[in-house]
DNA sequence: TTTACAAGTTGTCATTTGCAACCTGTTTCC
DNA sequence: GGAAACAGGTTGCAAATGACAACTTGTAAA
């Protein structure tokens, strides 16, 4: 991405600009979603997302470059290539689900015939929430910024 | 955004494309972050983010249009305008924190002098996680898609 | 050994971004 | 009351990014 630089290079900044540097481009999250759904080949992503081939190529390369996905030629058919999530990629699941739940809460045309459930019990998962170390759910006004020993709520970044 | 349309209009789709339609553009999340940090005026956003004025104008208008922020002229100084988060905007906090935590976990130059804490106890908040209805933490492989009575793990969208 | 397929790359054109300059409606200061 | 300053924009233009279609390359199947 272009000029998040000023924010990006500031060492006192929070992790959001870094995350956006990697995932903030058009299609990145939808490619990630497809990967979570088991798609691994270039043509699969291409046909499922309807994304232009050069953009897909570019995005996959960027995701690989940033360690979110791994690229390796397929063993049995060396025409094919496999793109798979790394651990770093899997770690984006909470962020993706939080976005998705938000989209579903406020979206217009969303009737998700498919619902994410806890595989063990078959019940829907809980909404993604902010929690204290002891598990209490927290809202924005229950949060504060701490400066390495201090307490209070100064500006973030 | 341009051609997420095919995905967007499909009623069987999940909420992710909707969320990206609103928040997937450059700067949107950083504007949101600034709003969470108490910035309310055009010039505040402008100088904190270093974003071009026309883009800022456009993004704020889009966020207002999509119900994430509210725009109202300032009572006491009618030159000024206040942009404030709506409830819909506040509901993006988990998604934003999940992204931020991911960025901090894997980022290079991040030493967040400021840390988010539970205001009541002063301790750092827990990592944003996926949980079952009963509170158990879940990973990707503990999840399944349910189709309105069925059970299993077919394709998502 | 020809044909088909997967995964790109290249060329062209439309859209989006970034930058600077300008405009308009307050407010402040003298 | 009038001049200067300030907040929040808009406009015009250059540069970067995205979309679409056609072409290339390295396998594999027939």
UniProtKB/TrEMBL annotation, chains A, B:
Residues 14-111 form the HTH hxlR-type domain. SMART domains: HTH_MARR. Keywords: DNA-binding, Transcription, Transcription regulation. GO terms for molecular function: DNA binding; DNA-binding transcription factor activity. InterPro entries: ArsR-like_HTH, HTH_HxlR, HTH_MarR-typ, WH-like_DNA-bd_sf, WH_DNA-bd_sf. This is Transcriptional regulator.
């Amino acid at each position: 991405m272009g000029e998040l630089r000023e924010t990006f290079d500031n060492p006192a900044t929070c992790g959001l600009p870094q995350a956006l540097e990697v995932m903030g481009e058009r299609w990145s999250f939808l490619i990630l979603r497809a990967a979570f759904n088991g798609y691994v080949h270039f043509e699969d992503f291409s046909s499922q997302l309807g994304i232009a081939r050069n953009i897909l190529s570019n995005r996959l390369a960027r995701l690989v470059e940033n360690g979110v996905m791994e690229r390796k030629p397929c063993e049995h058919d060396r025409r094919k290539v496999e793109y798979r999530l790394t651990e770093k990629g899997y770690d984006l699941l909470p962020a993706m689900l939080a976005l998705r739940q938000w989209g579903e809460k406020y979206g217009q045309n969303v009737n998700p015939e498919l619902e994410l459930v806890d595989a063990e019990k078959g019940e829907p998962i809980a909404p993604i929430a902010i929690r204290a170390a002891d598990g209490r759910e927290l809202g924005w006004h229950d949060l504060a910024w701490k400066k390495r020993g201090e307490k209070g709520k100064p500006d973030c970044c």
